[in-house]
UniProtKB/TrEMBL annotation:
Name used for this protein in its record: Integrase catalytic domain-containing protein
Organism: Euphydryas editha
PROSITE patterns: INTEGRASE
GO molecular function, one term: nucleic acid binding
Domain Integrase catalytic: 167-353
Entries under InterPro entries matching the protein: DUF5641 (IPR040676), Integrase_cat-core (IPR001584), Integrase_H2C2 (IPR041588), RNaseH-like_sf (IPR012337), RNaseH_sf (IPR036397)
GO biological process: DNA integration
């Protein structure tokens, strides 16, 4: 509009300054929008007649100013130090295209802020019919605001894997492995870093802790061999792939990312162990061991009295923390006097909780090999029966993600790859190239093509960008 007025002024050889042209263009657009929305009211006002009782402008006491723009009459003419536009704002219909463009302008100038801020700024100059619905509509259609609001849509929580409910098997048959640290130790007059390795039995929730001096693949394999020598080789190992170690420092993330997955899998396969790596940046897939790492860290803060103990002291404290965590109850703790002792991971490892005496009284007649074997089998069976009765039912409910509320991701969807450690405005965008479903048919993992390359992510780290309004 301003360009048209500038052309007209030049044609008439009347040069007008830019400010005057912009002001006239604004008046022309406002009058055009008001004529489209309030033609009946404008005709009645020009004719000096009263508005109809069903008119939307009846309560506003509208009038036409000297430029022919429809404004609110209102009741605050006597207010001091208030601008004319605030006393008599321009009336517009929020459904009009011009009004929507004005709202969009204020929305952008407000930094895509909350809707009340935009409404307040608009009221200083304009009175929109359906103001808040219009502001809400503009915010909903704004692509930048969509990117700010979008978040991953979690599918229904899947069933527990067989490793979590595999009873009557040796502890650590199904095992999760992760690293934590670093921890400083004193060697002579210098300090060195040590890292912890946690092995978690996915069934009875027992842990085994080892320390390593470096984060190389060889150190991790030796820690696995030490654990297997004491607990037996796992049939199945689960771990992350080194890019989703929460709470670890930069060195830990970098070093674990360099672990050779192929070497680990080859070494494990020699002993009949299958090694499975969870998707990148999906710590909730490893919640079974992530939660126990937190318990280990809490216990370490209690027992560790110095910042950099000697290595022998650290190894002793690590063993004590292992016993503390393995002594926690797995089921409800009864306060009745004659109730049974609560089931703990140590019952499956030691035959009793860590602070309990040996169960029962035995004499020389119990030294027969066959009877000893039967006693051991009976105790193990008793603990497993209690586990099935007391612990297994507690795993039935879904604590969250109880329903499939949203449409699953599909090939071709435009998505944001979520990075909790980076600002939202630098999250990479991409296109879903491939989807991977779980046993229940729900999409759990997707392959996303981005400018950074192809990324494999859990749906918890991928947010779909809505393109339809």
């Amino acid at each position: 509009m301003s360009a048209v007025l500038k052309f007209i002024s030049k044609s008439q050889k009347r040069e007008l300054d830019e400010c005057t042209i912009m002001k006239r263009a604004e008046i022309q657009l406002l009058r055009y929008a008001q004529t489209q929305s309030f033609s009946t009211e404008i005709s009645l006002i020009k004719g000096g007649k009263y508005l109809n009782k069903n008119s939307k402008l009846l309560t506003l006491s509208p009038f036409l100013d000297e430029d022919g723009v429809l404004r609110v009459g209102g009741r605050i003419d006597v207010a001091a130090d208030v601008t004319y536009s605030t006393k008599h704002p321009v009336i517009l219909d929020g459904r009009n295209k011009v009004a929507k463009l004005i709202v969009q302008h204020y929305h952008v100038n407000a930094g895509h802020g909350n809707q009340e801020m935009v409404v307040n700024n608009l009221k200083q100059k304009y009175w929109l019919i359906r103001m808040r619905p219009t502001v809400k509509e503009i915010s909903k259609k704004c692509m930048l605001c969509r990117l700010k609001r979008v978040k991953p849509q979690m599918p229904k929580m899947g069933d527990l894997p067989s490793a979590r409910v595999a009873h009557h098997q040796r502890p650590f048959t199904h095992c999760g492995i992760d690293l934590f640290g670093p921890m400083e130790v004193t060697i002579g007059r210098r300090r060195e870093k040590r890292y912890g390795v946690i092995f978690t039995c996915l069934t009875v929730r027992a842990i085994h802790l080892e320390t390593v001096s470096s984060l190389s693949t060889d150190s991790l394999i030796m820690a696995l061999r030490r654990m297997a020598s004491r607990r037996g080789w796992p049939a199945h190992l689960y771990s992350d792939n080194g890019t989703n170690l929460r709470g670890a420092d930069t060195e830990l993330k970098k070093a674990v990312a360099e672990l050779d997955e192929q070497t680990l899998q080859t070494t494990a396969s020699i002993y009949g162990t299958k090694w499975t790596f969870i998707p990148p940046a999906s710590p909730h897939w490893g919640g079974a061991w992530e939660r126990l790492i937190r318990s280990v860290k809490v216990a370490l803060k209690v027992v560790l009295k110095e910042r950099a103990p000697r290595e022998e002291v650290l190894n002793t404290l690590i063993a004590e923390v292992e016993a503390i965590v393995n002594g926690r109850p797995l089921s409800h703790v009864s306060v009745e006097v004659d109730s049974k002792e609560s089931l703990t991971p140590n019952h499956f490892l030691l035959g009793s909780s860590s602070h309990s005496p040996q169960m029962g009284n035995f004499d020389d007649s119990d030294l027969f090999l066959r009877r000893q074997w039967r006693i051991a089998q009976r105790l193990a069976d008793m603990f497993w029966r209690r586990w099935v009765i007391e612990v297994l039912p507690e795993l039935i409910p879904r604590q969250k993600w109880t329903t499939e509320l949203h449409k699953p991701l599909q090939i071709g969807d435009l998505v944001l790859v979520v990075d909790p450690n980076a600002p939202r405005n630098v999250w990479p965008r991409g296109i879903v190239e491939e989807v991977f479903t779980g046993k229940d048919g729900s999409v759990r993992v997707v392959q996303v093509r981005t400018q950074l390359g192809s990324l494999k992510r859990s749906v918890a780290r991928v947010a779909k960008i809505p393109l339809d309004v």
